[in-house]
Amino acid sequence: MIEKSTTPLVSVVTPAYNEAEYIEECITSVLRQSYQNWEHIIVNNCSTDRTLEIARAYAAKDSRIRVHTNEKFVGAIENLNTGFQLISTESKYCKPVLADDLIFPECLSMMVNRAEEDPSVGIVGAYGLNGKVVQWMGLTYPTSFYAGREIARMNLLGMPYIFGTPTTLLFRSDLIRSRSEFYEPQNPQTDYHVCLELLQHCDFGFIFQILTFSRKREDSRATSSTFYSTIPFANLAAVVKYGPTFLTQDEILERFKVCSRMYYLHLGTNVLRLREKAFWNYHRQKLAELGLRLDRLHLIWAVCSTVMGGLIQPRQAVGKARTWWSLALQRLRARIFRSSSEPPRSLRGRL
User: Fold this and answer.
1) pTM of the predicted protein model
2) How many independent structural domains does the chain possess?
C-alpha cells in the first residue's frame, strides 16, 4: 500500500439527520477503505435520536473523524453544503457519502487513482448498487475518460443518466471551494445541474465497477422530488439552461421538443392522478423561472394521449387509475382532517 504521506487527502462528507439505524454502517465503510489518507466530516443536523452519540463515539477512537452539529435544523441540501464548507484546506478530493449509504473498500482508492491519472478530471463516477439494482450504466467500456463538454453534450442529447447521486461521485476539492453554495437548496435536481455546470471547466472520469451502495430513501428531498415529479422538469430545464453552452441551435430546438413532450405527458398523467393545487403551483413557478408558462393546449393533448394509451391496455389503465384515485382520496381526507383540527382563522394568532 502507498504510504499515507504520498497520497492526496480525501474529505468524506456525510450529512446526517436521525440516521441512528444506518450511520454506524456508513462510518465503518469509510474505516474499511484500502485508501487511508482521508478525513470524515459528519454533519449532525440537530438529530433527535442516537446519531450524534454514535458519531462522537467513532470520532473519539479515530482522529480522522470530525463531528459538527448545526445550531439549528436546515434542509438536506443545506446540510450537505455545510459539510463541504468544513473540508480541510489540504483536501484535494471530496467524497460525499449520505448517512444511509456506504462505500465499498476499494472506492476511494479507485476513484482517486482515476482522477490522478488525468489532472483535468474534476468529477469521477462509477456504477452504484441501489438496493438490488445496478445503476448509472450507459457508457461504453473501457473508455474511462471523457472531455467535460463531450459528456455534457451526450447527456443533454439523451444518453442514459450516468452522474448518479452525490454518494456515487468524487469531486476535486477546488471545484467544491469555487462555489459559495455547491448545491442549490431550492433545486431538487441540483446534483444533475451542478455536474453540467462544472463540466464547462473540467473533464469526467468513470470506473466500470460497483463502488457504492444506496438505499431507497424517504427523506424530505426524495419525497419532494417524487411528489412534484421534478425529474422530467429537470431534463427540460437542463436543455434551456445549458443547451446554449453545449449544443447547436438545431440540437437545442430538437431536444427542447423531445423534453417538452415528455414533460407534458408526465403532467397529463398527473391531471388524471387528481394532483392538488400545490403541485400545479410548483410547476407554474418553475416554468416561469425558465421564462416559460404552463401551456393548456399541450396539457390537454397530453391528457388525451394518456387516455388513448389507456384504451389500448384497459386492464393496466384501470389498475393505475384505481391506485391514483385512492391516493388522491387519502390526500383529500388528510387535508380535511388537518383543516378541521385547526382553530378558526380569527383565533389562530391568539393561540
Assistant:
1) 0.84
2) 2
